[in-house]
């Protein structure tokens, strides 16, 4: 792991300013680093600002959102760069996997062409070369019968298969940083484990850094080297994952961990006669 961070977020603030309402702060002074080759977990309950943090880094915030501070990618401030430059960085340097693959994919475009598109636009490949490469990417993400399914449309695939397509799109240009925004939330439990194993293997194989955004403490504990805990748009705790889970410093982190039933409690029901 390099001593110099690949990504540095400094005093990131995001405000939502609707035209007919009061300005609201949704990210407040968030700071952290991501080093090459590490997996950083971002954990918190729904509404804590995790996904907005991902969108801020990708430059995909809605027009009513205003971001300030610094997001430094190898020293380049993404908040100050042009949209043209961001289009170059997306995919080539930073890839993202969205949490709902059915809405993230184009329903009118074949799977193979959606994977190939980025390689044509940003990788300098012809459509023929990119389509062949797309089938290779589908093999990498363990898509069964990849050559045939490259000609399929999103509605013809299962949820797990669609998420594999999302992973293939994110990795097609071999980015140095992968942002996985709740990548298993829309999947059933058995498929979740397969997708997490796949992500772990691909991150190791490609030598990427990964930001894994999740509300699932089990996923974070299993996958991440370091963990950040967020609540109400603020980072309240950061540390090595094992330290955060075994010796939480913040009361909210302790409450979050206590909300997960222990194995000894699984299957137990409280006595209805017991007072609340």
Automatic annotation (TrEMBL):
Q: Which CDD domains match?
A: ABC_NikE_OppD_transporters
Per the similarity annotation, which family is this?
Belongs to the ABC transporter superfamily.
Which Pfam family would be a valid example here? Answer: oligo_HPY
Q: Where is the ABC transporter domain?
A: 9-257
One cellular component term (GO) for this entry is: plasma membrane
Query: Which species does this protein come from?
Result: Rhizobium oryziradicis
Task: Name the chain's protein.
Answer: Peptide ABC transporter ATP-binding protein
Say if the entry is tagged with keyword ATP-binding: yes
Q: How does it sit in the membrane?
A: Peripheral membrane protein
Q: Which GO terms describe its molecular function?
A: ATP binding; ATP hydrolysis activity
């Amino acid at each position: 792991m390099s001593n110099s961070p690949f990504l540095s977020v400094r005093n990131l603030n995001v405000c939502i300013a609707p035209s007919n309402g009061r300005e609201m702060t949704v990210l407040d002074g968030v700071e952290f680093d991501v080093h090459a080759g590490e997996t950083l977990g971002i954990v918190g309950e729904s509404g804590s600002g995790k996904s907005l943090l991902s969108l801020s880094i990708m430059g995909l915030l809605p027009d009513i959102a205003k971001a300030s501070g610094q997001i430094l990618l190898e020293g380049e401030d993404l908040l100050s760069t042009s949209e043209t430059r961001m289009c170059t960085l997306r995919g080539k340097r930073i890839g993202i996997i969205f949490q709902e693959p059915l809405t993230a994919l184009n329903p009118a475009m074949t799977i193979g062409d959606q994977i190939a598109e980025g390689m044509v636009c940003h990788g300098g490949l012809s459509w023929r070369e990119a389509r062949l490469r797309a089938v290779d990417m589908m093999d990498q993400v363990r898509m069964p019968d990849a050559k045939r399914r490259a000609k399929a449309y999103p509605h013809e695939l299962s949820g797990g298969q669609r998420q594999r397509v999302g992973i293939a799109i994110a990795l097609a240009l071999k980015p140095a940083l992968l942002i996985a925004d709740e990548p298993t939330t829309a999947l059933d439990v058995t498929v979740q484990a397969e997708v997490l194993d796949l992500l772990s293997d691909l991150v190791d194989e490609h030598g990427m850094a990964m930001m894994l955004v999740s509300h699932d403490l089990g996923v974070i504990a299993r996958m991440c080297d370091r963990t950040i805990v967020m609540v109400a748009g603020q980072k309240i705790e950061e540390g090595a994952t094992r330290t955060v889970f075994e010796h939480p410093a913040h009361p909210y982190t302790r409450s979050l961990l206590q909300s997960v039933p222990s194995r000894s409690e699984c299957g137990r029901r409280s006595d209805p006669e017991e007072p609340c």
